[in-house]
């Protein structure tokens, strides 16, 4: 590279003492080698004119700084200068930016020379690039010479003025080309987006909306032709012109009359369309018509926050923007990444919409000006506004430098390990070594600091003024933000009970000690996370209750302050679930498991078998059965909090949830049975052995949060004990287990259901093995045979339980299979269940248990196939629905595609049923209709974005397909 550079210097004649200062300036260019190569090419292009430029560079330090900075920063502008070498004169001497009026004159003079749009493209392009080059030269010059730094706001304004002048020239040429000597129709070109706000990028689409005066067909047709050709000319000569922000987007008319625009916004416009209008500005064309357009629509803009769907639409917009960026490049995305430009712009615009109806000082388009206005009005802290402005301008500066390099639209930082590209960017952005870091190190440090600051300020921007106003009101100080303004802001952020929310905030921050100080630091971020949950109001109330309960535990606030992941996960749980907060109130230590351990989330580190053993052992330390069962229930409560938290946070699959819930239930049954046996046994020992047989979902290892424990008790007399005495004692034990576990407590109820025993509620609570055998051999009904398919020993004497299972195998898996009459009876019973068991008023399409394609449909279908084929296929000798489905598929009893449909439906319905309990805090099987509750269920079920509508559509689609399989398979 050195030899190439030396050759270039020799060709230029820059190897004399007179050029030392010039070479020093060249070395300060962002990329000196690129600048030198461009200078060499420029000398060749100038030929005989090179001496004039060479001489000017020796004398004019300003020219040196501007020329070297441009050539060392922008390959595209270097190519432009080489293609138009005389344009270097624009950078010589005293260079100032023309006013908007002067720009219009410059472009109008060029436009007046052309009546043909095609012929005008090339000269207009050269003119536009030359004006961009002048601006870039003044913007970049401080990197080479000690020229004044051009404020970011001035750069954005000039680029917007330049765009206006260019659009005006394009419209002038097209008007003459299309209309000739005739008067063109009145047409206003309204600038939108960054151009409308006069904060344009070097390379950006220019968003516009076209407004016509006359709504007649002929006039609109002509105006549409003019608008279309103007867009083509401007896009060919200057920049992409985008009219997609017009009513109905790209599907709508390109040009509408003023009355048509007004009618659309009154009836059909979405919230984002009003948000876009905040930056609308008449740019060129009929300026009076453009002003009337804004006057007609502006009142609608500032009342948009009162729309019924304002909050969900705003939240959906925010999520969609975040999803546009792949996670792998999010940290390099200046615009759409976390802590990026869009975060700032979105936050500022939302605050403007919320307070703008009551405060006209917020009716400004520029992001920087809006931040100042928000700070002046007390809606944003002054220091926060200043810091956010500094961060925003820093990110926009980097964006400008990246775009200037090739005049391409980009917002993506170079790869973080690309030192050469980052070093160029640092120098182009005026960064110099600071004593600790070189320019590259300074850039890396600044990127980390600014990204973190924007992410932190994004939350503070919304919530710090709220907390300050609450604190000021509590202490009797002058309030920066009024109570009404605070309520409006909370409502816009998703809090429906804004007045109650302010009360909670006052309570949380009202303490004058450490707790109040820490809460005031935490709450801006916590409230921001809560606003993304389905029920921020409930989440804030839950947080207040939990904080009050933990007032004497220093670790609680310290953990939330120091462990960001814990705090964020806790807010998600508190704002989604009514089930888990109640558990955490009694077992808050589970919150510490929200942290990440060395092998992943601590919530998932527990060994279910080890937990079960610990639970049983803990209960065994107490001789009093009440205390023993209380200890078991306490550990169960802690486990429920852990499992449900992991479930809500997407850390545990639905099958893992069911298995772990089953393991906990089994352990509690074992602990309770052991405690009651100890308490009721004479000194000689228990009169009988007892086994607990799990039925239904307990036997299948598929319990949900709202499931009862379906069980049967079987006993065998010990040596020397009469059977009748053994049975009486066993009944006493079983009744105490059932009643003690069913006693209301701080944990969710433990209902032990024994209705599946022989003869149901009329039958004996406990039978001996031989009694069961006699009953099933002589009296078993088809539904009882079906119920036995899920029987599995779960607690008590395991040897006795195993004997029971071997005994019933002859009933549930008879050697020749069940009879055709039994199959027919099972179908009849299912039809009766479908007709009679669905609760009054329930929707059969969305009842997760008994609805169409729901759990009962899938499980009855699987069980019917087991009854028919288990005598031939040993793999069907199991109690799990999913395992049985896998065996059915392996045996090719039904098509693999049908297996997948049934499996998908079972998982979907189980997940939905569990989510219902997590959200509502009590067992229920009916999915709610559209609204906040359904969104919460969708979130709890792990549906992307918590979109209840999409979640419900998917549920209906999955269960509908499964129902078709059920009709085909179950119905024969």
Automatic annotation (TrEMBL):
Residues 316-462, 830-970 form the PII-uridylyltransferase/Glutamine-synthetase adenylyltransferase domain. Keywords: ATP-binding, Ligase, Magnesium, Multifunctional enzyme, Nucleotide-binding, Nucleotidyltransferase, Transferase. This is Bifunctional glutamine synthetase adenylyltransferase/adenylyl-removing enzyme. Its cofactor is Mg(2+). Residues 66-294, 568-805 form the Glutamate-ammonia ligase adenylyltransferase repeated domain. The keyword Transferase applies. HAMAP family: GlnE. The gene is glnE. Involved in the regulation of glutamine synthetase GlnA, a key enzyme in the process to assimilate ammonia. When cellular nitrogen levels are high, the C-terminal adenylyl transferase (AT) inactivates GlnA by covalent transfer of an adenylyl group from ATP to specific tyrosine residue of GlnA, thus reducing its activity. Conversely, when nitrogen levels are low, the N-terminal adenylyl removase (AR) activates GlnA by removing the adenylyl group by phosphorolysis, increasing its activity.
């Amino acid at each position: 590279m050195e030899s190439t550079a030396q050759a270039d210097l020799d060709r230029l004649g820059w190897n004399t003492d007179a050029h030392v200062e010039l070479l020093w300036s060249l070395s300060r260019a962002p990329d000196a080698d690129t600048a030198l190569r461009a200078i060499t090419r420029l000398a060749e292009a100038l030929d005989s004119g090179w001496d004039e430029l060479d001489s000017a560079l020796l004398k004019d330090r300003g020219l040196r700084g501007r020329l070297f900075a441009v050539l060392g920063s922008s390959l595209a502008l270097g190519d432009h200068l080489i293609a138009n070498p005389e344009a270097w004169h624009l950078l010589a001497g005293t260079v100032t930016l023309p006013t908007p009026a002067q720009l219009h004159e410059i472009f109008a003079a060029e436009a007046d020379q052309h009546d043909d749009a095609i012929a005008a493209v090339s000269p207009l392009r050269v003119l536009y690039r030359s004006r961009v080059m002048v601006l870039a030269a003044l913007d970049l010059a401080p990197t080479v010479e000690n020229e004044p730094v051009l404020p970011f706001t001035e750069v954005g304004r000039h680029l917007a003025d330049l765009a206006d002048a260019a659009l005006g020239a394009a419209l002038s040429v097209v008007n003459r080309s299309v209309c000739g000597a005739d008067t063109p129709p009145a047409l206003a070109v309204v600038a939108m987006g960054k151009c409308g706000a006069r904060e344009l990028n070097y390379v950006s689409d220019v968003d516009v909306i076209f407004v016509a005066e006359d709504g007649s067909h002929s006039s609109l047709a002509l105006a549409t032709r003019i608008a279309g050709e103007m867009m083509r000319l401007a896009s060919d000569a200057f920049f992409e012109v985008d009219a997609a922000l017009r009513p109905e987007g790209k599907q709508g008319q390109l040009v509408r009359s003023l009355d048509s625009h007004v009618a659309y916004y009154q009836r059909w416009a979405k919230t984002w369309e009003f948000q876009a209008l905040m930056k609308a500005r008449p740019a060129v064309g009929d300026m009076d018509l453009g002003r009337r357009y804004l006057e007609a629509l502006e009142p609608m803009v500032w009342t948009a926050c009162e729309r019924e769907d304002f909050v969900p639409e705003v939240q959906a917009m925010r999520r969609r923007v975040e999803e546009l960026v792949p996670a792998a490049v999010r940290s390099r995305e200046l615009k759409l990444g976390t802590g990026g430009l869009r975060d700032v712009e979105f936050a500022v615009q939302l605050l403007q919409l919320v307070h703008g109806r009551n405060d006209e000082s917020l009716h400004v388009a520029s992001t920087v000006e809006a931040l100042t206005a928000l700070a002046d009005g007390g809606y944003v802290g002054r220091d926060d506004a200043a810091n956010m402005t500094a961060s925003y301008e820093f990110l926009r500066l980097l964006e400008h430098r990246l775009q200037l390099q090739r005049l391409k639209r980009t917002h993506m930082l170079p790869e973080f390990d690309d030192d050469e590209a980052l070093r160029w960017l640092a120098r182009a952005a005026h960064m110099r070594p600071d004593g600790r870091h070189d320019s590259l190190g300074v850039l890396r440090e600044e990127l980390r600091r600014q990204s973190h600051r924007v992410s932190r300020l994004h939350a503070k921007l919304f919530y710090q003024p709220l907390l300050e106003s609450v604190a000021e009101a509590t202490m009797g100080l002058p309030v920066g933000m009024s109570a009404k303004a605070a309520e409006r802001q909370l409502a816009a952020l998703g809090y429906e009970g804004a007045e109650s929310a302010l009360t909670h905030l006052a309570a949380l921050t009202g303490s004058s000690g450490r707790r109040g100080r820490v809460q005031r630091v935490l709450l801006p971020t916590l409230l921001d996370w809560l606003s993304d949950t389905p029920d921020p109001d409930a989440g804030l109330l839950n947080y207040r209750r939990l904080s009050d309960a933990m007032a004497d535990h220093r670790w609680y606030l310290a953990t939330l302050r120091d462990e960001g992941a814990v705090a964020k996960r806790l807010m998600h749980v508190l704002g989604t679930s009514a089930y888990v907060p109640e558990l955490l109130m009694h077992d808050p230590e589970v919150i510490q498991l929200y942290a990440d351990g060395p092998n992943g989330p601590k919530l998932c580190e527990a060994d279910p078998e080890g937990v079960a053993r610990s639970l049983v052992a803990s209960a065994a330390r107490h001789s009093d059965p009440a205390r023993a069962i209380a200890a078991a229930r306490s550990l169960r409560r802690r486990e429920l909090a852990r499992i449900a938290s992991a479930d809500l946070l997407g850390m545990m699959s639905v099958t893992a949830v069911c298995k772990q819930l089953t393991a906990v239930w089994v352990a509690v049954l074992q602990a309770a049975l052991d405690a009651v046996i100890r308490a009721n046994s004479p000194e000689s020992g228990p009169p009988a052995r007892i086994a607990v047989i799990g039925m239904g979902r307990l036997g299948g290892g598929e319990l949900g949060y709202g499931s009862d424990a379906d069980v049967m008790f079987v006993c065998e007399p010990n040596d020397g004990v009469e059977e009748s005495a053994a049975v009486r004692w066993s009944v006493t034990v079983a009744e105490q287990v059932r009643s003690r576990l069913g006693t209301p407590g701080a944990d969710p109820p433990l209902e032990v259901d024994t209705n599946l025993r022989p003869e149901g509620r009329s039958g004996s609570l406990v039978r001996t093995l031989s009694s069961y055998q006699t009953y099933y051999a002589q009296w078993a009904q088809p539904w009882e045979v079906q119920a036995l398919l899920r029987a599995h020993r779960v607690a008590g004497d395991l040897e006795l339980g195993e004997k029971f299972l071997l005994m019933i195998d002859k009933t549930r898996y008879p050697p020749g299979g069940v009879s055709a009459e039994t199959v027919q009876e099972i179908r009849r019973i299912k039809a009766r269940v479908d007709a009679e068991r669905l609760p009054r008023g329930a929707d059969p399409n969305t009842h997760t248990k008994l609805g169409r394609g729901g759990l009962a449909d899938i499980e009855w279908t699987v069980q019917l196939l087991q009854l028919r084929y288990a005598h031939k296929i040993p793999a069907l000798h199991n109690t799990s629905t999913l395992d049985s489905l896998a065996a059915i598929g392996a045996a090719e009893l039904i098509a693999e595609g049908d297996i997948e449909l049934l499996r998908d439906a079972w998982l979907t319905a189980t997940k939905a049923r569990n989510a219902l309990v997590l959200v509502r805090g009590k067992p229920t099987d009916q999915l709610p209709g559209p609204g906040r509750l359904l969104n919460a269920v969708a979130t709890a079920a792990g549906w992307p974005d918590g979109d209840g509508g999409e979640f419900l559509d998917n549920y209906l689609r999955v269960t509908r397909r499964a129902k078709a399989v059920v009709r085909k398979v179950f119905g024969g």
